[in-house]
Amino acid sequence: MSQTKSSTIALNRRARHEFFIEERFEAGLSLLGWEVKSLRAGKCNLTDAYVLLKNNEAWVIGVHIQPLIAASTHVIADPTRTRKLLLRAREIDRLFGEVKQKGHTCIPLAMYWSGGRAKIEIALVKGKQLHDKRDAEKDRDWKREKARVMRNRG
């Protein structure tokens, strides 16, 4: 009775449009019980989230985990609370050094299950200008048109 289920909980689709992704990291999350239950139900949104680096610790801010009605009756749930990221010290040091550079920031790209534990993929990114977004859209349209022509030809 095994179910084949996707391990992805949530994706930040806007990130690839808004930023150049330079480097990716996998981090654990410090979660409460009701949050894990909500993640198992897929009730998570990463769209407006970002990573704050402070006092040699990494925190994710703006991840919205919608509380389940039946899961937590005795706990007052805060869906957008600040959650601690579990990273190695050298990874945090690397992020600190890169984020201090102008134009660099750190955002979450995806949340997924790995070995029964919730993991979050964070990325070191640099913001795109408007003309960069237009160029990326042109390239994407050209690739789509090229694939369409090749498919119709054969």
Automatic annotation (TrEMBL):
InterPro entries: SmpB, SsrA-bd_prot, SsrA-bd_prot_CS. Residues 135-148 have a biased composition (Basic and acidic residues). The keyword RNA-binding applies. PROSITE patterns: SSRP. Residues 135-154 are annotated as: Disordered. GO terms for biological process: trans-translation; trans-translation-dependent protein tagging. The keyword Cytoplasm applies. One of its GO terms (molecular function) is RNA binding. Required for rescue of stalled ribosomes mediated by trans-translation. Binds to transfer-messenger RNA (tmRNA), required for stable association of tmRNA with ribosomes. tmRNA and SmpB together mimic tRNA shape, replacing the anticodon stem-loop with SmpB. tmRNA is encoded by the ssrA gene; the 2 termini fold to resemble tRNA(Ala) and it encodes a 'tag peptide', a short internal open reading frame. During trans-translation Ala-aminoacylated tmRNA acts like a tRNA, entering the A-site of stalled ribosomes, displacing the stalled mRNA. This is SsrA-binding protein. The gene is smpB.
